[in-house]
């Protein structure tokens, strides 16, 4: 799809008399930042503007400034503008990164069509080797806190940990993170919800799609009913509820009304709106990545319908440039980035820049090494062996981050 720049704006950019952030604030359509390195591929259009061919997106810059012009239909543009207004009336203009912390790469279900776990080679998913040691989970939790990231939720493959282990991990995570956390552990029965309740903010149900037919394809062995039961129980015992929604599985915009009813019925206070990542070896391996506008449409519609709901948007390393659009559409926070491997890289700098382009202050950091005081680990009061192991794991994480 071509991008269009008016010759007037182009000339202002070239003269340096208009910076990209100011331009972005002029219109919600100025949302597709591109880091351009030359503009030799531009050509003058017959509308006295400059048309940028789509293949030039990743190779062109103008004065080292990101470019934000994206041709979007008027209706979506107006929707995003309205959603952005609703967001600003209900939340502070900040955002942050949310880290989901996994306890395993093994799952007892293992055939969801969008899930990286179901596509992992067998040797990586043997139960004995694919479950993390608690020191690694706690090291990651502590770094999450030091870097100012929100703890998205505690999760892992279904049946990888038993209830005793989960409860014990949640207690330790609360100590290390300093507050309760969300959990996403499959459908949890009432007696376990009550057991975990002292340590959790709420329970996340991996709903994935509200289109029943699509659900059968996406989650052939993960029926929705047990999750609905869990939501009902959580509502009954006063526990908050959240849900995941993956855009691009085969749903259409016509399904939005079902989402509205679902959110109302189960009192969902937080929603994670991801875009499909087609993993090799899954039924979605050849599927298209949902477009930025389509993901933004779902976020904007949800924001307008539910002004106070907490919306987390999922991106990926190849979709950094859509972050500002998703935030403008009313998302609160950002998730889904291999953040330790990408820490301090251009991708992370670009992501932080994207949040500014959306007019948000980014809380925490994806680019600055944290200040570390290992004595803090001693003060958690874990036994000596675990304490030593947590410190070792932290050092390993820091080494990865420094190498980037
Ligand atoms: S149940 Fe969860 S972890 Fe297991 S395959 Fe499905 S999405 Fe992946």
In a nutshell, what does this entry contain?
This protein has 404 residues and is α/β, with parallel strands linked by helices. It has helices spanning 7-15, 20-26, 74-90, 134-146, 163-177, 190-196, 212-218, 225-236, 256-265, 292-305, 323-328, 339-342, 346-357, 375-378, 384-403; strands at residues 3-6, 30-35, 43-44, 49-52, 66-69, 94-96, 98-102, 150-155, 181-184, 200-208, 240-247, 268-275, 310-314, 333-335, 361-363.
Please render the helix and strand layout as text:
Layout: E1 3-6, H1 7-15, H2 20-26, E2 30-35, E3 43-44, E4 49-52, E5 66-69, H3 74-90, E6 94-96, E7 98-102, H4 134-146, E8 150-155, H5 163-177, E9 181-184, H6 190-196, E10 200-208, H7 212-218, H8 225-236, E11 240-247, H9 256-265, E12 268-275, H10 292-305, E13 310-314, H11 323-328, E14 333-335, H12 339-342, H13 346-357, E15 361-363, H14 375-378, H15 384-403
The chain binds iron/sulfur cluster.
The site of iron/sulfur cluster has 11 residues, from loops.
Spell out the key features of this protein.
single chain, 404 residues, alpha/beta, TIM Barrel, 2 domains, three-stranded antiparallel beta sheet, 39% helix, binds iron/sulfur cluster
What features would you describe in this structure?
The protein has 404 residues and is an alpha/beta fold. The longest helix has 20 residues, at 384-403. The protein starts with a strand and ends with a helix. It has 2 domains: 3-71, no CATH class; 89-363, Aldolase class I (TIM Barrel). Helix 4 (134-146) packs parallel to helix 5 and helix 4 (134-146) packs across helix 15 (384-403). The protein is globular, with a radius of gyration of 22 Å. Strand 3 (43-44) and strand 4 form a beta hairpin. It has an 8-stranded parallel sheet with strand order 7-8-9-10-11-12-13-14. It has helices at 7-15, 20-26, 74-90, 134-146, 163-177, 190-196, 212-218, 225-236, 256-265, 292-305, 323-328, 339-342, 346-357, 375-378, 384-403; strands spanning 3-6, 30-35, 43-44, 49-52, 66-69, 94-96, 98-102, 150-155, 181-184, 200-208, 240-247, 268-275, 310-314, 333-335, 361-363. The chain is built from 15 helices and 15 strands. Mean pLDDT is 85; it is low at 23-69. 39% of the residues lie in helices and 18% in strands. It binds iron/sulfur cluster. Iron/sulfur cluster binds at residues 107, 109-110, 112, 115, 117-118, 157-158, 206, 222.
């Amino acid at each position: 799809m071509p991008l269009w720049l008016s010759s007037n704006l182009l000339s202002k950019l070239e003269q340096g008399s208009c910076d990209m952030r100011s331009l972005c604030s002029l219109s919600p359509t100025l949302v597709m930042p591109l880091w351009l390195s030359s503009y030799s591929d531009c050509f003058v259009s017959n509308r006295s503007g400059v048309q940028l061919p789509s293949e030039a997106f990743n190779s062109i810059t103008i004065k080292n400034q990101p470019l934000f012009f994206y041709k979007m239909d008027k209706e979506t543009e107006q929707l995003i503008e309205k959603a952005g207004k609703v967001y600003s009336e209900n939340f502070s203009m900040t955002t942050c990164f949310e880290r989901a912390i996994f306890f395993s790469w093994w799952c007892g279900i293992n055939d969801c069509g969008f899930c990286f776990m179901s596509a992992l080679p067998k040797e990586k998913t043997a139960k004995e080797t694919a479950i993390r040691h608690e020191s690694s989970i706690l090291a990651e939790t502590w770094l999450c806190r030091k870097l100012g990231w929100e703890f998205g939720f505690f999760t892992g493959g279904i049946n990888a940990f038993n209830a005793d282990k989960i409860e014990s991990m949640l207690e330790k995570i609360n100590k290390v993170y300093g507050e309760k956390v969300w959990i996403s552990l499959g459908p949890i029965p009432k007696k376990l919800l009550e057991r975990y309740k002292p340590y959790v903010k709420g329970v996340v149900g991996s709903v994935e799609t509200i289109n029943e037919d699509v659900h059968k394809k996406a989650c052939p062995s993960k029926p929705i009913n047990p999750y609905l039961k869990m939501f009902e129980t959580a509502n009954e015992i006063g526990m908050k509820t959240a849900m995941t929604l993956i855009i691009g599985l085969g749903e259409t915009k016509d399904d939005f009304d079902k989402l509205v009813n679902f959110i109302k019925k189960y009192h969902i206070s937080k929603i994670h709106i991801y875009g499909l990542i087609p993993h090799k070896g899954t039924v979605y391996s050849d599927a298209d990545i949902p477009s930025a506008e389509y993901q933004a449409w779902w976020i904007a519609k949800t924001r307008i319908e539910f002004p106070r709901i907490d919306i987390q948007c999922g991106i990926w390393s190849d979709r950094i440039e859509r972050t500002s659009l998703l935030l403008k559409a009313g998302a609160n926070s950002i998730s889904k980035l291999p953040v330790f491997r990408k820490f301090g890289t251009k991708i992370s700098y670009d992501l932080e820049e994207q949040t500014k382009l959306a007019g948000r202050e980014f809380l925490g950091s994806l680019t600055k090494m944290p200040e570390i005081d290992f004595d803090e680990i001693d003060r958690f009061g874990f036994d000596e062996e675990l304490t030593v192991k947590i410190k070792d794991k932290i050092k390993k994480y820091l080494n990865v981050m420094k190498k980037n």
